[in-house]
Design goal:
100 residues; 434 Repressor (Amino-terminal Domain); 73% helix
Length: 100
Protein backbone atom coordinates (compact mmCIF):
# COMPACT_ATOMS: atom_id res chain seq x y z
CA UNK A 1 0.00 0.00 0.00
CA UNK A 2 2.84 2.39 0.86
CA UNK A 3 4.34 1.74 -2.57
CA UNK A 4 1.07 2.80 -4.23
CA UNK A 5 1.05 6.07 -2.28
CA UNK A 6 4.67 6.75 -3.25
CA UNK A 7 3.92 6.07 -6.92
CA UNK A 8 0.89 8.36 -6.75
CA UNK A 9 2.95 11.16 -5.14
CA UNK A 10 5.68 10.87 -7.79
CA UNK A 11 3.14 10.89 -10.62
CA UNK A 12 1.35 13.82 -9.05
CA UNK A 13 4.59 15.80 -8.82
CA UNK A 14 5.40 15.04 -12.46
CA UNK A 15 1.92 16.17 -13.57
CA UNK A 16 2.32 19.41 -11.62
CA UNK A 17 5.71 20.07 -13.26
CA UNK A 18 4.27 19.44 -16.74
CA UNK A 19 1.35 21.73 -16.01
CA UNK A 20 3.66 24.48 -14.74
CA UNK A 21 5.85 24.18 -17.85
CA UNK A 22 2.78 24.30 -20.10
CA UNK A 23 1.41 27.36 -18.29
CA UNK A 24 4.78 29.11 -18.60
CA UNK A 25 4.93 28.38 -22.34
CA UNK A 26 1.43 29.79 -22.80
CA UNK A 27 2.32 32.90 -20.80
CA UNK A 28 5.42 33.51 -22.93
CA UNK A 29 3.41 33.18 -26.16
CA UNK A 30 0.68 35.50 -24.92
CA UNK A 31 3.29 38.05 -23.82
CA UNK A 32 5.02 37.96 -27.20
CA UNK A 33 1.76 38.23 -29.13
CA UNK A 34 0.37 41.01 -26.94
CA UNK A 35 3.58 43.03 -27.31
CA UNK A 36 3.12 42.98 -31.09
CA UNK A 37 -0.56 43.98 -30.85
CA UNK A 38 0.26 46.80 -28.43
CA UNK A 39 3.03 48.05 -30.73
CA UNK A 40 0.58 48.19 -33.64
CA UNK A 41 -2.04 49.97 -31.52
CA UNK A 42 0.49 52.56 -30.35
CA UNK A 43 1.51 53.20 -33.95
CA UNK A 44 -2.17 53.74 -34.78
CA UNK A 45 -2.52 56.16 -31.86
CA UNK A 46 0.39 58.18 -33.26
CA UNK A 47 -1.17 58.13 -36.75
CA UNK A 48 -4.41 59.45 -35.27
CA UNK A 49 -2.42 62.06 -33.29
CA UNK A 50 -4.05 61.12 -29.98
CA UNK A 51 -2.25 61.69 -26.71
CA UNK A 52 -2.17 59.29 -23.78
CA UNK A 53 -4.43 61.71 -21.91
CA UNK A 54 -6.97 61.66 -24.75
CA UNK A 55 -6.86 57.86 -24.71
CA UNK A 56 -7.43 57.94 -20.95
CA UNK A 57 -10.42 60.27 -21.39
CA UNK A 58 -11.95 58.05 -24.09
CA UNK A 59 -11.36 54.72 -22.33
CA UNK A 60 -11.99 55.82 -18.75
CA UNK A 61 -8.60 54.37 -17.81
CA UNK A 62 -6.10 56.52 -15.94
CA UNK A 63 -3.33 58.07 -18.04
CA UNK A 64 -0.72 56.36 -15.85
CA UNK A 65 -2.29 52.99 -16.68
CA UNK A 66 -2.31 53.88 -20.38
CA UNK A 67 1.42 54.62 -20.12
CA UNK A 68 2.03 51.31 -18.33
CA UNK A 69 -0.01 49.51 -21.00
CA UNK A 70 2.04 51.11 -23.77
CA UNK A 71 5.34 50.09 -22.15
CA UNK A 72 4.10 46.48 -22.39
CA UNK A 73 5.90 45.58 -19.19
CA UNK A 74 3.30 42.97 -18.34
CA UNK A 75 0.55 41.11 -20.12
CA UNK A 76 -2.49 43.39 -20.39
CA UNK A 77 -5.98 42.27 -19.61
CA UNK A 78 -8.28 41.57 -22.51
CA UNK A 79 -10.54 44.37 -21.30
CA UNK A 80 -7.68 46.86 -21.50
CA UNK A 81 -6.76 45.71 -25.00
CA UNK A 82 -10.37 46.01 -26.08
CA UNK A 83 -10.85 49.50 -24.58
CA UNK A 84 -7.65 50.81 -26.13
CA UNK A 85 -8.45 49.35 -29.56
CA UNK A 86 -12.04 50.62 -29.47
CA UNK A 87 -10.80 54.12 -28.62
CA UNK A 88 -8.90 53.99 -31.90
CA UNK A 89 -11.87 52.64 -33.84
CA UNK A 90 -10.28 49.18 -34.08
CA UNK A 91 -11.66 45.75 -33.24
CA UNK A 92 -9.65 42.98 -31.60
CA UNK A 93 -10.68 39.38 -32.00
CA UNK A 94 -9.40 36.88 -29.45
CA UNK A 95 -8.97 33.35 -30.76
CA UNK A 96 -7.64 30.27 -29.05
CA UNK A 97 -5.86 27.95 -31.44
CA UNK A 98 -4.22 24.62 -30.89
CA UNK A 99 -0.94 23.86 -32.61
CA UNK A 100 -0.94 20.44 -34.22
Amino acid sequence: MDNTVEIYEVEKELREKRLAAYAEAIQEKVQKDSEQVIKELIEERYRQKKTQQEMADITGVRASNIARFERAGCTPTLIMLEKYANALGKHIEIRICEDK
